[in-house]
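Predict the 3D structure for this chain.
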Amino acid sequence: MGRRLGMIAGTVLLATSALVPIGPSAQAGAAAAPSSAASVTAKAREPFSVFAVSVKGPKKVKAGTKYTYLINATNKGPYSADWDLGGFLPDGIVTTLTWRGPKNTQCVWYRFAGFWCWGPYEVPVGESTWLAITVTLKKGTKGTLKAKLGGETCDCPTGSEGLSRQEWKRLGIKNYFWAKTVKTTIISKKAARHIYVPPPPKPPPHEPVHHNRRKST
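Done. Predicted structure below.
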């Protein structure tokens, strides 16, 4: 399904040292020091890095217009980490969107697996990254739309970063999704004349706008 589908991979060296090896060597190590192996296994269940995530989006928008989601993620540690931000956008939007993010950010939008972006550098402990996603409503979309967006971490051993979620699940690799649900109510243009609709949140300046069309698989 492509590169790192929506996961923030933990630091590779940390992942390699924290995970218990699989196979005969692991059994030999467990026999020699069972209490130590049990301790390492317990630690492997905790994420290598915890992210505090906030997601902003409008509570109300005019029918047939565009609006923006703004995701911010702060690395609370204990280690630096690669990052992926995004998630699941609502139905009722067109299949092309625009986005903004830190320099050299890459994004992919899949029909059933969500919209995900990742950067070329790790986020140090205490620092943040961000992503702004602008969507366009289809004509005739009504009601309340729901998006689930945030950041995801993965305790990935070396070589597993590019695997799909299905492969991670089959191999028993744990991932963590810090997500927020944003609900947006569509109001008619006629009603909007009498209701104040605030402008979308503004992302940091000086970043180019990029376009993505949703892939069919």
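The chain is about 20% helix and 40% strand.
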